[in-house]
Write a structure and sequence with these properties.
The chain has 133 residues and is mostly helical. It has a single domain, classed as Hemerythrin-like (Four Helix Bundle (Hemerythrin (Met), subunit A), Up-down Bundle). Helix content is 80%, strand content 0%. The termini are far apart. Bound molecules: fe (ii) ion (2 copies). One fe (ii) ion (FE2) binds next to α2 and α4.
Length: 133
């Protein structure tokens, strides 16, 4: 199943929404590459891009939280750290087993579900706060 961004994921701040859209797109590419049985190098490149992009994205949100003294900064940041840990588990799995169905299952479980949930709750709350600034 494709990982598609839809307006229900909008947090109301366009810079953040655009980055979320890019994240969905790249995660979808990762799943597609695994499903199509593409090579280790290609899948490895998508994983490397995602790892970097996620960090850039989290830094964007965290900068805004600091700038406006957001009271839920620490809990929000803790969730980001959790994701980075999840993602390194995924990368480890990839290094051990290569691309394939196991990686698809793990990506869905620890990346897609987490991301959707985080955007729908934690990022949406932040978006509401930022819109008032
Ligand atoms: Fe976030
Ligand atoms: Fe986010």
């Amino acid at each position: 199943m494709a990982v598609l961004w839809s307006p229900e994921f909008s947090v109301g701040v366009s810079a953040i929404d655009e980055q979320h859209q890019e994240l969905f797109k790249r995660i979808d590419s990762l799943l597609e590459a695994c499903n199509r049985g593409q090579g280790r190098q290609m899948v490895g490149e998508v994983i490397a891009f995602l790892e970097d992009y996620v960090k850039t994205h989290f830094a964007t949100e965290e900068k805004q939280m600091i700038k406006y003294a957001y009271s839920e900064y620490l809990t929000h940041r803790t969730e980001h750290k959790q994701f980075i840990e999840n993602f390194s588990q995924l990368k480890k799995k990839f290094e051990e087993t290569g691309p394939g169905i196991q990686l698809v299952v793990l990506t869905n479980k620890i990346v897609v579900d987490w991301l959707k949930n985080h955007i729908m709750t934690t990022d949406t709350k932040l978006g509401t706060f930022l819109k008032e600034k």
